[in-house]
Design a protein that fits this description.
The chain has 12 helices and 20 strands. By secondary structure, it is of the alpha/beta class. Bound molecules: guanosine-5'-diphosphate.
């Protein structure tokens, strides 16, 4: 029996979905433990190409039970549509292979509305929210004013609580933002309609996971976003509102007394970032456009062009540290093939001093990148390579250089989006 967390080391979009889809085959249970439908995991396999927002990437693997843990926030309408989309493509999504924690919080339409209203109020100081209601719902959770998925199975209990919560929400909507209040009947009908579709999937996932552990089953924890978006350790306030680190995996999954045995950190061979906030190694202009096109760097959830730049070893080392990564997967190495010289950011310059320490958020805005260049591999297509020693020498050297700089073993090198496009070291 072993537990394994698969987590992002950087700003998210590192290719976690693709790695989980690959690794999930060795596990009995795959659990999402934080976040909501604000990020997307891209999986390309025999069923087609999918942008998963909530459903764990283990859904494609036969015999794997997929769980949304208590730490996740769920928009039931969006989840139902995602389930229907998968079914239409021939993927099995049933109460046997997909379970929803009764303690996960529900994202209501007013959470999305408040997310948008606040971003509009902030104008040019906005956080770059995906407007999926994630910050408002997590804030409500800690104010003890969310509805849990399990309440759908107790309609009278839900109704009474929702009435009180909506009264309070409407005060904010009308008083702070001058918006129209939400009508109770509409919100209640909405949650009972989509909740009704989901009720057979809702269960006590703590019991489920504890039993799985007792039976010696292997559990994988699938994270969303990356270390630099973690609410406590990320570039606050340009973070998500949940814990994207492996340290939260057992709590958000629903087995709080357990620990993670193995943490696979996903690192992209270059840097990307969606949304606002410091992004020290950023490229602009044609250089950035070329890399963005080569890597198809557009958001899965929003379609927004991602900010791009060379691999930032300062930020990545920090990401490895707070994730407690025991091994790494380096993804999208093939994307760098077009470059003659591959820059990497090896240090920051802060107020005239060079540092390889990742600064406190208040200092990060002033940090300037220090780049070094490594030789490229002359445009050779490495997409078909399956053994490390078959990579061009300069590609091998790039991997070894990154491994040394990060101090964590790179176990997987991904050279394409397909399930088998990787090298195991
Ligand atoms: P996630 O949120 O961390 O899962 O990241 P994304 O869903 O944004 O995935 C990154 C994108 O890169 C997706 O379109 C993947 O299919 C693709 N991808 C993942 N690994 C590789 C790789 O090694 N090479 C290439 N060319 N594409 C990859």
């Amino acid at each position: 029996m072993s537990n394994c967390a698969v987590v992002g080391i950087n700003w998210g979009d590192e290719g976690k979905g693709r790695m989980v889809d690959l690794i999930a085959r060795d596990f009995d249970v795959v659990v999402r433990y934080q976040g909501g439908n604000n990020a997307g995991h891209t999986v390309v396999n025999e069923y087609g190409s999918f942008g998963l927002h909530l459903i764990p990437s283990g859904i494609f693997s036969e015999g794997v039970v997929n769980v949304l843990g208590n730490g996740v926030v769920i928009d039931p309408e969006s989840l139902w549509k995602e389930m229907e989309g998968l079914r239409a493509a021939g993927v099995r999504v049933t109460p046997e292979n997909f379970k929803i924690s009764d303690r996960a919080s529900i994202v209501f339409p007013y959470h999305l509305q408040l997310d948008g209203l606040e971003e509009e109020r902030l104008k040019d100081k906005k956080y770059g929210s995906t407007r999926r209601g994630i910050a408002p719902v997590y804030s409500d959770k800690y104010q003890k004013k969310t509805i849990m998925m399990g309440e759908i199975l107790h309609p009278d209990y839900l109704k009474a609580r929702l009435q009180g919560i909506l009264e309070w929400k409407n005060l904010t909507l009308t008083g702070v933002y001058g918006a129209e209040p939400n009508e109770f009947g509409r919100i209640y009908d909405w949650v009972m309609r989509y909740g009704g579709y989901l009720k057979d999937y809702i269960c006590d996932t703590t019991e489920l996971l504890t039993n799985a552990q007792r039976q010696g089953k292997n559990i994988m924890f699938e994270a969303q976003l990356g270390a630099l978006r973690d609410i406590d350790f990320g570039i606050y306030p340009y973070t998500s509102s949940s814990y994207s680190i492996a340290g939260y995996a057992c709590i958000g999954a629903g087995i709080p007394g357990s620990h993670v045995d193995r943490t696979v950190g996903i690192v992209k061979a270059y840097s990307t970032c969606v949304g606002e906030g410091p992004f020290t190694a950023e490229w602009f202009g044609p250089e950035a456009d070329k890399l963005r096109e080569a890597g198809h760097e557009y958001g899965v959830s929003t379609g927004r062009p991602r900010r791009v730049g060379p691999l930032d070893l300062v930020a990545t080392r920090y990401g490895c540290l707070i994730q407690g990564a025991t091994e790494l997967a380096l993804t999208k190495l093939d994307v760098l093939s077009y470059l003659d010289e591959i820059p990497v950011c090896t240090a920051y310059e802060l107020d005239g001093e060079r540092t390889d320490r990742f600064p406190f958020p208040a200092d990060l805005d002033r940090a300037k990148p220090v780049f070094e260049s490594l030789p490229g591999w002359g445009g050779i297509d490495i997409g078909g390579v399956r053994r490390f020693e078959d990579l061009p020498k300069n590609a091998q050297d790039y991997v070894l250089y990154v491994e040394k700089a990060l101090g964590v073993h790179i176990r997987y090198v991904s050279v394409g989006p397909g399930r088998d496009d990787y090298i195991l070291r």
